[in-house]
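== Item description ==
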Amino acid sequence: MKVGYARVSSNGQNLLSQIESLEQAGCEKIFKEKVSGTQAANRKELQDALDFVREGDTFIVTRLDRCSRSVLDLYKIIETLNDKGVSFKATEQELDTSTSTGRLMIGLLSIVSAFETDLRAERQADGIASALKRGVRFGRRTKFDDEKTVKAIQMQKDGMTNQQIADHYEIGRSTLLRWIAEYKKREGHKE
């Protein structure tokens, strides 16, 4: 059986041309959805189509990007199909996993996917290192600082409990005590 899958990214787009192409390719059942193609796991109709196909079936899309925008996701989808004994075909591109050339292309896609992932991780690490050198701080901003620590120490001297002070600054008691200890240690080293 030939099973089709048609997808567009938004409700404003039309599935008609994809459906016509899939019908011309002989698809007996077509799964359709209007959702982003970035993550396969978030697409119910795609998951239903992958569950529906059986050994000997052909899963057909018009173009690779209709199946997935992520090479890694695409490879996982095709791997799922291969495990079920289902071939994959794109009508507008020369990709058919029932042929040796199609299987080669899928292998190349997996290598490219791994390469893209490595490059992305390297660029991200370089960007973070560069930002840290420029003094950029990551994470949420702290609710507490040295100025508040000095005030908290004075509040202790005025008789407030550590919990009352922590509640006043909307921080945990252990956070308050850590800030005070670190501040006193730094100030102690300066003397």
